Amino acid sequence: MSFQDEQLAKEKVFRDPIHGQIIVDNQILLDLINTPEFQRLRRIKQLGTSSLTFHGAEHSRFGHCLGVYEITRRMCNRFQRNYPTREPNDGLWDDRERPVALCAALLHDLGHGPYSHTFEHIFHTNHEAITREIITSPSTNVNRILRRVSPTFPEDVASVIDHTYHNPQVVQMISSQVDADRMDYLQRDSYYTGTNYGKFDLDRVLLMMRPIKSGIAFDISGMHAVEDYIISRLQMYLQIYFHPVSRSMEVILDHLLKRANYIYQHPSEFEPEFTPYMLMPFFNNHFTLDDYLALDDGVLTTYFNHWTQSRDDILNDLARRFLNRRPLKSALYDKKSKPLLPKLRKLIQTAGFNSDYYTAVNDSFKLPYDTYNPQDSNPQTQIELIQPNGKLIELSQVSTLVASVSGKEAGDQRFFFPKEMLNEHQDIEIFEPIYEEFQSYIQNNHVVNPKENNNGN
């Protein structure tokens, strides 16, 4: 049975705050949405710890995946209406690619774990590799449904997600510098964080898209809409994704899981009965797909609640700091002030905080726009504009705005430490000189050398 044979007699509509209506008109797609693997995404927040900074950011990866599907569906509709293929290899849209594009869009984030990026860092998992495994493993409901299209269809869908699919148009719909994934999460994250940074003219960008042999390009008359999208993305990273409080809570989460892992690995030294069963496969570095799919944000939060009663002072304190939103403080540092960090860690250690768990450095940088460089380890597909004569020109060649940010990283480097180090009065007077010395190194939220910065930074 083909994908087209499973068209629904009546389309299913999901109401959505970003796109208004998300339309599903195929049984394959509806069955994929109803699998346990996909429904699990309801229980994983899209922005992880950002909800502790922006209280509205409680939205899930489930809603985001539906949104990416909807944008991809609109791309397919416009391409088929305005640029249908007329002969083989003419660079126009072949609507036979619609099933693989829609399924890849819907399933692209299927492998994300709880508090995804922190979890990946601690347990060395890879959400893209796990997404591929969920799609291609014969044991999953997702794979069984995809095989209804054809025996090779699951592999086709997975190859779109890992960028090896033969049609670059389909790959760039899901993953490029202007793709359905980014266009949905910018608007969705902006809405739920209560900010305006990620808003751009989605309809105009989609209207200007055109399929070409090498992928997707944009009519040059839509250049300003694409510029707006790029600047919106830059602002979202600087104002939302790189927010120092969200990063601080990620540091606490990272160190909390690290401490739990350490205690589990040293039972004779700490708590012999420490058996967080659902995390033990990851502590043992030997987990199955079923182990992974059993985890969500709620599972981790339940363990964190248990750990607030731990006999280990570091574990229970970090658990309380995370659950009760008590972020670490941070200060900016640069190449000049970086050599001062060991001194600050020593002061923190002397004040009674284990510097392995109560300090961290975190570098967050993002390229607003990157021109194609085949020598890069992961070269970006550049944004091409179609000129009136039909020739292509790269965006930064004609946009002074994009040229001004092209290839230039934006972000900062921060040193994280306990907020207590900045308190003016501590209960333990013996530590008072330590706090005062530490504070002399922090001026205007920067790490400074007090001997060189008597007048402030």
From TrEMBL:
<dbReference type="InterPro" id="IPR006674">
    <property type="entry name" value="HD_domain"/>
</dbReference>
<protein>
    <submittedName>
        <fullName>HD domain-containing protein</fullName>
    </submittedName>
</protein>
<dbReference type="Pfam" id="PF19276">
    <property type="entry name" value="HD_assoc_2"/>
</dbReference>
<dbReference type="InterPro" id="IPR050135">
    <property type="entry name" value="dGTPase-like"/>
</dbReference>
<dbReference type="InterPro" id="IPR045509">
    <property type="entry name" value="HD_assoc_2"/>
</dbReference>
<feature type="domain" description="HD/PDEase">
    <location>
        <begin position="57"/>
        <end position="195"/>
    </location>
</feature>
<dbReference type="Pfam" id="PF01966">
    <property type="entry name" value="HD"/>
</dbReference>
<dbReference type="InterPro" id="IPR003607">
    <property type="entry name" value="HD/PDEase_dom"/>
</dbReference>
